[in-house]
Specification:
Layout lengths: L4 H11 L19 E2 H13 L3 H17 L1 H13 L11 E2 L17 H17 L5 H17 L17 H17 L3 H17 L1 E2 L2 E2 L27 H13 L20 E2 H13 L3 H13 L10 E2 L9 H8 L7 H15 L7
Length: 362
């Protein structure tokens, strides 16, 4: 019997949702035994697309409670930002334990802003697709996050790959922009709408080189996460010349022919392989652009990476940028994470973009 990866992906996500509502990033990869706001928000969105609204509701409730539990740190960060002071340890962490506690640990890239923008965006998506009313707890947490992001959006932080903390990253800015625009609607906040417009103007003025968007401000190359500027955050339209040029550059430098998509041209994490979730992201862009055949080819490639139980990995080491780095990472952290719930989320999103209505109804 042929594997139904769509149904398997839903089952894998549900199986790995904690009683608290959080989603573990990967159950078989000890380093990822936490819940990231970025991963979790995309997973919740995928579950909404699949019609599993209760799962998404549980995640957003966990998120709101986690944010409120650590709200004093966010408030101190806002005060420091307004005074031009270093944040120190006063910021919301990008990942938490499944119970919502700070994970701690030296050397972790804990200061990341994109996941909180993604959460604000995903809350609006949940309300639209599920028809649920907005709980007071979510609204309160949304105000904390929106205030935090309005104050800190120009602060350098780690990117979505947990690198380059010294830089400002267009994908991070796009997630914040999309999140604040969403919050301006469900939180009825005009200030957030204006801040989102300021961020859009900043990106267009500072994050373009050679006719395309760049990995970070001051860099010249592209990063596959730049797809987020169009899908889902709509900083620019899918047909905008700058976006089309960026996708063309991603195709030329990062999309392996008949294969997956690398993160960026100098990636050495596990040798710099082809990321399953990025194949789904590029396919998502093509599906929404009406380029169905390209999207379907990427969906098929994703399906071919699943094992017999339907588990999708984080990346595939079939075509590495620098093979010398593969074994050292395996020796350090073990085999490549599998399943990675974010990979399954992007598969569901792309599948739904090609096969169903936005609410996930067949």
């Amino acid at each position: 019997m042929q594997l139904d990866l769509y149904r398997a992906s839903i089952a894998i996500i549900l199986k790995n949702q904690a009683p608290t509502g959080s989603y573990i990033a990967s159950p078989n990869f000890p380093t990822y035994h936490y819940c990231w706001f970025r991963d979790g928000a995309y997973i919740a969105y995928a579950m909404n697309r699949a019609g599993e609204h209760h799962s998404a509701f549980r995640f957003h409730t966990w998120s709101a409670r986690t944010i409120l539990r650590h709200a004093e740190k966010a408030q101190r960060a806002v005060e420091k930002a307004h005074q031009g002071l270093p944040l120190g340890e006063d910021y919301l962490h990008t990942r938490y334990t499944l119970e919502g506690e700070e994970a701690g640990g030296e050397g972790w890239a804990n200061f990341q802003l994109d996941g909180f923008g993604t959460w604000l965006w995903a809350v609006e998506q949940h309300i639209q697709m599920s028809g649920d009313s907005l709980p007071a707890e979510w609204r309160q947490a949304g105000e904390v996050v929106a205030t935090y992001l309005r104050a800190l959006w120009q602060t350098p932080c780690y990117d979505c790959w947990e690198e380059h903390p010294e830089a400002i990253h267009p994908y991070t800015l796009a997630a914040i922009c999309g999140g604040l625009e969403a919050y301006s609607r469900w939180g009825s906040d005009a200030v957030s709408a204006q801040t989102a417009q300021n961020i859009r103007d900043f990106i267009l003025s500072n994050a373009v080189q050679a006719g395309h968007f760049v990995k970070f401000i001051g860099d010249k190359g592209v990063d596959a996460s730049l797809l987020g500027l169009a899908v889902p955050y709509r900083v620019v339209s899918l047909q905008a010349p700058l976006m089309q040029a960026t996708v063309a550059e991603i195709e030329q430098t990062l999309h392996v022919p008949q294969g997956g998509v690398r993160r960026y041209a100098t990636d050495t994490y596990y040798g710099g392989g082809e990321w399953v979730l990025l194949a789904g992201w590029l396919g998502w862009y093509y599906a929404e652009s009406g380029e169905t055949s390209r999207a379907q080819a990427l969906l098929a490639w994703m399906e071919a990476q699943a094992d017999v139980e339907g588990n999708l990995p984080e990346q595939v080491p079939a075509s590495l940028i620098d093979p010398a780095f593969y074994i050292p990472w395996v020796e350090r952290w073990g085999p490549i994470a599998k399943p990675l719930l974010w990979s399954h989320a992007k598969y569901i999103i792309l599948y739904r973009a090609l096969n169903s209505t936005p609410t996930g109804k067949e």
